[in-house]
Amino acid sequence: MIPGKGPAGVLTAAMAACPGESVANGTFLDVIGLVKTNLRTCRSWRQFARDLLACVTRVRPVFMVDYVHLRRDQVVTLLRAAASLTGVRLLALRFGDCCWFVANTAELGSMINTCVELGTFPQFIAFERVAGRGLLVPKVATTPEVQCIRDQLRSTCRCLASDLEASTSASVDAIDISSFCEDAFFPTLSGWLLGYPAVYVLLAPGLPAHDPQEVSRALSCAELVLFQCRVTCGALGENRPPVRKKEPHAHDPDVLLAFTVPSMVLSDGAAQAMTVSLEQAVADRICNAPYGVWGKATVSTEIKENVGVAL
């Protein structure tokens, strides 16, 4: 598919070009050094460096920065410096004061085209109230609901494509996506951007809107299946800290991405199928990444109960 040539025509072909197709491994050490220097007082600098390398090498086209507070000028400065080292254009997406996303611009453009033109979507998890009790419970979205959610996501992606096109023309390094994404739709857009095979839906045409805090409370009482995709980043080398298992909230440096799915919406074999699909998708991206940066991808699942979920 050539961007800009399909029926939606949402992006130009130039945007899909990636000048940093082959980047020397030594350059990745420079990127790590860049992050370490700029975030030396932050305990999460290794996580940001790993996520940034994943973005540059297309292993993870988009990642969320919700584990460290960064000002707009800090984000832009880091991304510009990383782009100058690697030749890969990066873009910061901000949702109000909530969080930042960092995207590989070429990969984001491809994702948008796929969503708008081909209609590739994850599994949607909606919510409904228990009759007479008023409690929210998760459910698999029905076929009519899925169509509404797809239309909403396509519409949002067209707005994102317009801003992405404008940012490329004006050489802008950061855009605010809150202008075309309502708070209640943010979990859906966020899950799609991050490449999760299952995403939560709180708002879509024809569906009742749900408060994110109420949904978080409902999920905190549900049995959840935690999916974790682990990939060792060889470029970090000795900079990888040991995992302290005694600290339940300590970050595992090998976890590339993690998400939860309520066990009650997973049919027999669904978790295994989702695991295999995710593992293969990440493995395919690693095969196209520079040699020596990433190890083998493995996806594990674990049952979690009474876990708070940030939407």
UniProtKB/TrEMBL annotation:
Record's InterPro entries? Answer: DUF4504
Q: Which Pfam families match?
A: DUF4504
Q: Which PROSITE patterns match?
A: PROKAR_LIPOPROTEIN
Which PANTHER family does this one have?
UPF0739 PROTEIN C1ORF74
Entry protein name: Uncharacterized protein
Species per Swiss-Prot/TrEMBL record: Ostreobium quekettii
